[in-house]
TrEMBL record:
The chain crosses the membrane at residues 76-102, 122-143, 164-186, 206-224, 236-254, 260-277. It comes from Cephus cinctus (Wheat stem sawfly). This is Etoposide-induced protein 2.4 homolog. It is found in: Membrane. Residues 44-65 have a biased composition (Basic and acidic residues). GO terms for cellular component: endoplasmic reticulum; membrane. InterPro entries: CysZ/EI24. The keyword Oxidoreductase does not apply.
Length: 317
């Protein structure tokens, strides 16, 4: 009974910690500027390691640190104001208007209007998706990844100091590639378990997969800056899964609400910067469960096989 209570408390703590980013975001820049103002030039020089730091003083520090709020707003503007809004305008504005015009033109023949619209709508949707949605989606993925990294680095420097990173460039590249492969396979594993014949069980397993995956996304920036290798990151999540299931729950639920994968991606990109900040601020609850949830083990085995056959020996767990 105590074990179940501890698990539930850890899940609730993770859920509450995931919401901290929405609050911290609005006072982080103020504290950064105050901290910068209080620091002496010599202390700033020791953190920057560049010859021009003494002359430029506070301004580079403020520009670098204050990008947390700026990048978050940019993510919202790109994904919500441009990408999502354009899709809504097309689907809820342009298509209904064109259908209305066709009804006016073929008013005497409703059958002809329906036939023309049945051919016109798929053509317009395909053209819009090919010419606008797909290129903008790919561009936003690239831009978002850069902005996410900028937010994570700024938040980490504010709370922890200078990132440690991994010991060598080759190790860093191998860890990054292997991590991307593991995450892609884990996403596929989550989709696969959602097809379990018993809907409640399949949906629950898929939700747990997405919670852990989104928690990994959010905390990975912090752990990577701390110099943690992938096997350590995954082992930590598996051993303390109640907290990370709770942490990833809000984002997992909100991204599953839209029926469109593209809209779901927009929701993720708008909210994810807040979860990066939350992960950087959070202190995970550990040691509440004696049974690790080894959901990453199957994809690790597959990733090791693929990685070894294509690139070279991977880090084994």
């Amino acid at each position: 009974m105590d074990n179940i209570t501890g698990i539930l408390r850890a899940m609730c703590r993770g859920f509450m910690d995931s919401l901290k980013g929405a609050v911290v975001l609005f006072y982080m820049d103020k504290q950064i500027n105050e901290k910068t103002f209080q620091n002496s030039p010599s202390r700033l020089d020791s953190h920057r390691r560049d010859d021009g730091a003494r002359s430029s003083g506070k301004r580079p520090k403020e520009q670098r640190e204050s990008k947390v709020l700026k990048r978050t707003i940019q993510c919202c503007a790109l994904n919500g104001g441009v990408f999502w809004a354009s899709i809504l305008i097309f689907e809820c504005g342009l298509l209904p208007f064109l259908k209305y015009l066709l009804n006016i033109v073929f008013g005497h023949s409703s059958g002809m209007s329906a036939t023309v619209w049945a051919w016109t709508k798929p053509f317009l949707s395909l053209t819009f998706g090919t010419v606008w949605v797909l290129p903008l989606f790919l561009l936003s993925r690239i831009v978002n990844s850069l902005w996410f990294q900028d937010i994570a680095d700024s938040a980490y420097r504010y709370r922890q100091g200078r990132p440690l990173l991994l010991s060598s460039v080759s190790k860093l590249v191998a860890d990054t590639l292997f991590s991307v492969l593991v995450q892609a396979l884990f996403l596929g594993q989550g989709m696969l378990v959602s097809k379990v014949p018993l809907p409640p069980i399949g949906d629950l397993l898929a939700l747990i997969h997405m919670c852990l995956l989104y928690a990994l996304y959010a905390f990975e920036y912090k752990w990577f800056n701390m110099g943690w290798e992938l096997h350590r990151r995954l082992t930590f999540i598996e051993a303390n899964w109640p907290y990370f299931v709770g942490f990833g729950m809000p984002l997992a639920v909100l991204t599953q609400l839209p029926n469109s994968y593209v809209i779901s991606g927009c929701v993720f990109s708008i909210l994810f910067p807040l979860f990066i900040i939350s992960g950087n601020e959070a202190e995970p609850v550990t040691g509440v469960c004696d049974c690790p949830l080894k959901l990453f083990s199957p994809v690790i085995a597959i990733a090791n096989t693929l990685f070894n056959k294509t690139i070279g020996p991977a880090n084994r767990r």
